[in-house]
């Protein structure tokens, strides 16, 4: 297969020629074979950089594209088809999701648009009942809650939020928070750990790590 460089004008002519009965298959073939870069830009909209050098915007759910093939001929153009293909094959996030990297291992994830960092993959996400490590002290804490609240939105003292606390200065103010207790204070029963006194501490999520912190990051004993 050879690919020819062509100007936008000749590109439009070529698309015009592909109208008609065979045009359907031709658009699908091009959607699969042409070099296009699809980028999710949010709100269910995708930017498609085509091999002609033009960029078009695709509204996947609305079935719309800004290219001439769609705007002037009303066709389900190759850009729309390519976005649908890339979404169904997991190369770009579906509408309502965004692509982010796991804060621990860097693997790409699709999370809800507007979800707060840090983002964690299935191997590195933690939930209620998990024992995790406090990066500041190296202590292990038991997660007892993962409320959908921001660190700068939870008061721990008159007028001061979790984010304001001096020990949280290195973590984002808009971090989601995690409620945790110190397992040293727990009693263990057949039903699991039961805290004798519910002293719950609230941490910015990125302060907690599923794995032990690096030796240098932990508080070193003198
Ligand atoms: Zn198009
Ligand atoms: Zn991960």
Automatic annotation (TrEMBL):
Transmembrane segments: none annotated. GO terms for molecular function: zinc ion binding. Residues 1-30, 203-222 are annotated as: Disordered. It holds the Pfam family SWIM. InterPro entries: Znf_SWIM. Residues 56-88 form the SWIM-type domain. It comes from the Archaea. This is SWIM zinc finger. It comes from Natronoarchaeum philippinense.
């Amino acid at each position: 297969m050879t690919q020819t460089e062509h100007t936008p004008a000749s590109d439009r002519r070529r698309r015009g020629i592909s109208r008609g009965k065979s045009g359907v298959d031709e658009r699908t073939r091009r959607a699969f074979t042409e070099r296009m870069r699809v980028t999710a830009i949010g709100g269910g909209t995708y930017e498609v950089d085509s091999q002609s050098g033009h960029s078009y915007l695709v509204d996947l759910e609305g079935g719309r594209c800004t290219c001439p093939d769609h705007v002037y001929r009303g066709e389900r153009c190759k850009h729309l088809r390519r976005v649908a293909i890339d979404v169904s094959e997991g190369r770009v996030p579906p509408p309502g999701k965004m692509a982010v990297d796991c804060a621990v291992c860097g693997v790409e994830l699709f999370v809800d648009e507007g979800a707060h960092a840090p983002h964690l993959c299935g191997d590195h996400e933690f939930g209620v009942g998990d024992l995790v490590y406090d990066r500041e002290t190296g202590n292990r804490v038991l997660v007892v809650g993962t409320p959908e609240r921001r660190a700068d939105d939870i008061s721990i003292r008159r007028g001061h939020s979790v984010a304001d606390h001096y020990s949280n200065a290195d973590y984002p103010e808009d971090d989601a928070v995690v409620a945790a207790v110190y397992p040293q204070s727990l009693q263990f029963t057949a039903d699991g750990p039961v805290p004798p006194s519910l002293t719950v501490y609230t941490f910015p999520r990125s302060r907690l790590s599923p794995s032990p912190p690096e030796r240098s990051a932990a508080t070193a004993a003198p």
